[in-house]
Design brief:
- The protein is an alpha/beta fold and 398 residues long.
- β10, α7 and β11 form a beta-alpha-beta unit.
- It is globular and about 60 Å long.
- The termini are far apart.
- 50% of the residues are buried.
- The protein is 41% helix and 17% strand.
- α7 runs parallel beside α8.
Length: 398
């Protein structure tokens, strides 16, 4: 089955929503933060630890998995869920943003994205069709993101318009491919895809029709282009809709402005996903504007560099002021790290380069994000979200 979205409660003071995304691998309560497992792992955290934290869905990346380990190995291991020992839902990004980040190492045309691997310099072409088929028939993703073109910030109106037109063209081709995959039985071949090199879906993957395809709204910071992009996507009737091309260097005021005028136009009966945004203040503001789903690498990236989220703000735990601090990372947190370890000990681990320090920080940061979404959901259901947001940010931002 494809996903279904059920609206549980909408705030009476704004657009904040609490809902459920029902998938064949379990229910996802929204608002939801998806830990990022780019290369088939959430860095330094095991699947069992993620489950204990309360993660209901994780994100992985098509671009990285296409290059390494590649479709042959993932197929051999029975699809992405089996490969990484995760039995809950997985959303896979298309890799469009990663290809965009390659700069001179890539060339984008209507055909697709030609790029040079950041790993070994080999050349590849990814088309919208290949990206969908790889996610649906090899990875066995629960939610598929199509190939899109992410225009940089700042960019001209004409550049952003061309990216919207290409994203719309690719969206149509992605939708056709997704429907075609759904009609094929498990023995149908993947035609004309020499890079994939397989003739049947991965053994153990869900039936093709269980994957759901989202559309990605582009348009940079131009309201007219965002509306045009959305109109094109609405005509294709995707299972959910994402806002892409944000958090790429624009000021927060513009981020909030774009989400503010785009989110209300998204279908109320389907999930709304803001891609790549993760600071707590941005999450709560986007929830207030009507967004349901989020992902970002900052919980794990900050953990590796010695920074942790707390109810009193971001703490750089490697700093000297915590050398004799016997308190937990966050006195208001009940995660495994905060229940067992002190700031002084974690600072010692980080400054000595011990892996355990990164792991403890990671478990705490992911718990912080998952718990923030849980608190936001409870506040929406109890119709006190604005009060909750004000109280949280009052402490967090000082």
């Amino acid at each position: 089955m494809s996903i279904r979205f059920k609206l549980i409660k909408k705030s009476s003071q704004g657009e904040a929503r609490a809902g459920q995304i029902i998938t064949s691998r379990g229910m996802i309560k929204t608002p939801v933060f998806m830990p990022v497992g780019t290369q088939a792992t959430v860095k330094s955290a095991s699947p069992e630890e993620l489950v204990s934290i309360g993660a209901e869905i994780i994100l992985s990346n098509t671009y990285h998995l296409f290059l390494r380990p590649g479709q042959e190995i993932i197929s051999l291991c029975g699809g992405l869920h089996s490969f990484m020992h995760w039995d809950r839902p997985i959303l896979t990004d298309s890799g469009g943003y990663q290809i965009f980040s390659l700069g001179r190492l890539r060339k984008v045309t209507d055909e697709g994205a030609k790029f040079q691997s950041h790993i070994n310099g080999s050349y590849h072409l990814l088309t919208p069709e290949q990206v969908v088929e790889f996610q649906q028939l090899v990875l066995g993703s629960d939610i598929i993101m199509p190939l899109d073109e992410c225009a940089p910030y700042p960019c001209t109106y004409d550049h952003a318009r061309e990216a919207v037109e290409r994203t719309s063209l690719w969206a149509k081709r992605s939708k056709e491919t997704h429907l075609h995959c759904g009609m094929r039985n498990a023995e149908c071949g993947i035609k004309d895809l020499p890079q994939l090199g397989t003739r049947r879906p991965a053994s153990g993957c869900p039936e093709p029709e269980t994957s759901s395809l989202f559309g990605i709204v582009q348009g940079n910071v131009y309201q007219e282009l965002r509306q045009c992009s959305l109109e094109d996507l609405l005509a294709l009737d995707f299972s959910g809709y994402a806002l892409g091309g944000l958090s790429v260097g624009e000021p927060k005021s513009l981020l909030y402005e774009v989400v503010g005028y785009t989110a209300p136009l998204l279908p109320a009966e389907k999930p709304r996903y803001l891609m790549g945004v993760g600071p707590p203040e941005d999450l709560l503001t986007a929830i207030e504007l009507g967004i349901d789903m989020f992902d970002c690498v900052i919980p794990t990236r900050h953990a590796r560099t010695g920074s942790v989220f707390t109810s009193q703000g971001l703490v750089v735990i490697r700093n000297a002021e915590y050398a004799r601090d016997s308190s937990p990372l966050d006195p208001n947190c009940d995660c495994y790290t905060c229940r067992h370890y002190s700031r002084a000990y974690i600072r010692h681990l980080i400054n000595c380069g011990e892996i355990l320090g990164i792991r403890l920080n990671t478990l705490h940061n992911i718990h912080f994000m998952v718990n923030l979404m849980r608190q936001a959901r409870e506040a929406i259901i109890e119709d006190r979200f604005l009060e909750f947001k004000k109280g949280f940010l009052g402490q967090y931002l000082g």
